[in-house]
Specification:
heterodimer, A: 216 residues, alpha+beta, Arc Repressor Mutant, subunit A, three-stranded antiparallel β-sheet, 6 helices, 33% helix, disordered C terminus, B: 193 residues, 8 helices, binds zinc ion
């Protein structure tokens, strides 16, 4: 897998600093599974967080009591954490499988029109919306604009839009000035994870009329 | 320069000691080592998360962090991270778990979907100690204003917009300071800006 489109350093910083909402964090973590280069960047930015924490100057206040409370909480719970059980093979990255409760075969796809399907990943966390899109080979996604940033991680196949070609593992970061019409490449259906800060606004009138009905 | 080199040397000794304390907790379930780690890091952690959170939340984060340090110590790998970095990530996740209903999406090293590093590494191979030294050097070379926004970006729930409001600066200024700081750090590691 040759990844050509990576999250910006600022986006990885926000992930490493714990400042991203669940949806964008899901897209970034899933990219990290597929991209050793950005994993290295993340490690470095976590080391930066560790450094900044270690440099913070604090005072010992009431530490004895706080430590005793920790000891008694430890005594009352499981002693060691067990690493997550992993299957022998998987298509989707682990963070996405956790959010879906399953792998690619368990997605309850809903019809989106023009042969495309989608599934909104439920989340209680903030206004960001994460969803999976399935675009049939060679077909377009309805034209849309979005409020705020849209992150799109390609998980299978590839798509192109006016700005470039996005294959498996690529993460596209598009701001709200971009009105784009991505097309899946002709050889394979394309599956991607799209995360928006606010609901997508579709431009073509049938999609716009259907939008409230489809819940997108 | 001599003074600077000595500081970094002292810092490495400290870092080696913190790592060995954490390994004692992992391997021998050593409560004294655990107490020492708490005494080293709890005050710094309080100061680090404290500026933007209420006192009760800060204590919850500290408690949750150290409970998880004890429980997850067996997952600590000293080749991958310093004790300070590892405890920082535990604290960051504890904060997210306390504030939100959904768990933080994380990479799992055993995920079969994980794409491993290439056998012929494309990256320069440097030790973690060397990484620490470079990071420290990059941080101390940053102008105060860039250091400040970086520190705020790592603080509790300070999005770039919050930082801008806090410092009474335009959002664009905050973003460009963050970009400049990150570029400085990438340069220190020999990467393209
Ligand atoms: Zn990447």
């Amino acid at each position: 897998m040759t990844i050509r489109h990576h999250p910006s350093a600022e986006l990885i910083l926000d992930y490493a600093a714990g400042g991203l909402a669940h949806g964008p964090a899901l897209a970034v973590a899933s990219h990290l599974v597929l991209c050793p280069h950005c994993r290295r960047t993340t490690q470095r930015l976590e080391a930066l967080g560790g450094r900044l924490m270690a440099d913070a100057v604090g005072s010992q206040n009431d530490s004895g009591r706080a430590f005793d409370a920790i000891l008694s909480k430890i005594a009352g719970g499981a002693d060691e954490s067990v690493p997550a059980l992993q299957p022998a093979t998987a298509v989707f990255p682990h963070p996405l499988r956790m959010a879906l409760g399953g792998d690619i075969g368990t997605v309850p796809w809903k019809r989106l029109g023009m042969g495309a399907y989608h599934y909104i990943i439920p989340s209680d966390d903030g206004p960001a919306t994460a969803r999976l899109l399935l675009i049939p080979a060679g077909r377009p996604v309805p034209v849309h604009t979005h409020v705020g940033t849209e992150l799109t991680l390609t998980l299978r196949g590839a798509y192109t839009d006016a700005t470039g070609h996005f294959a498996c593992g690529d993460l596209q970061e598009a701001d709200d000035s971009l009105t784009h019409q991505p097309h899946a490449t002709p050889d394979e259906d394309c599956i991607c994870l799209a995360v928006t800060e606010a609901p997508l606004r579709f431009k073509s009138w049938p999609a716009r009329i259907l939008q409230p009905l489809l819940g997108i | 320069m001599g003074h600077h080199a000595m500081n970094i040397g002292a810092r490495l000794d400290e870092s080696a000691r913190e790592s060995s304390l954490l390994l004692l907790v992992a391997q021998s379930r050593d409560v004294d080592a655990f107490r020492s780690l708490f005494e080293i890091f709890a005050p710094r952690l309080r100061a680090f998360v404290g500026r933007n959170a209420g006192a009760a939340l800060v204590e919850d984060i500290v408690q949750e962090t150290f409970v998880n340090v004890w429980r997850k110590a067996n997952l600590y790998n000293p080749e991958r991270a310093s004790a300070a970095t590892w405890i920082y990530t535990i604290a960051r996740n504890a904060r997210i778990d306390l504030l939100r209903k959904t768990f933080r999406p994380e990479v799992d090293a055993n995920d079969p979907a994980l794409v491993p590093e290439p056998a012929e590494p494309a990256f320069e191979q440097i030790s973690r100690d060397q990484e620490d030294v470079r990071l420290k050097r990059a941080l101390s070379a940053l102008p105060a204003e860039q250091h400040e926004v970086l520190r705020l970006a790592y603080f509790a729930d300070m999005a770039h917009g919050d930082i801008a409001a806090h410092l009474n600066l335009p959002l664009g200024t905050v973003k460009s300071r963050i970009r400049l700081a990150l570029r400085r750090i990438r340069l220190e590691f020999g990467e393209e800006p």
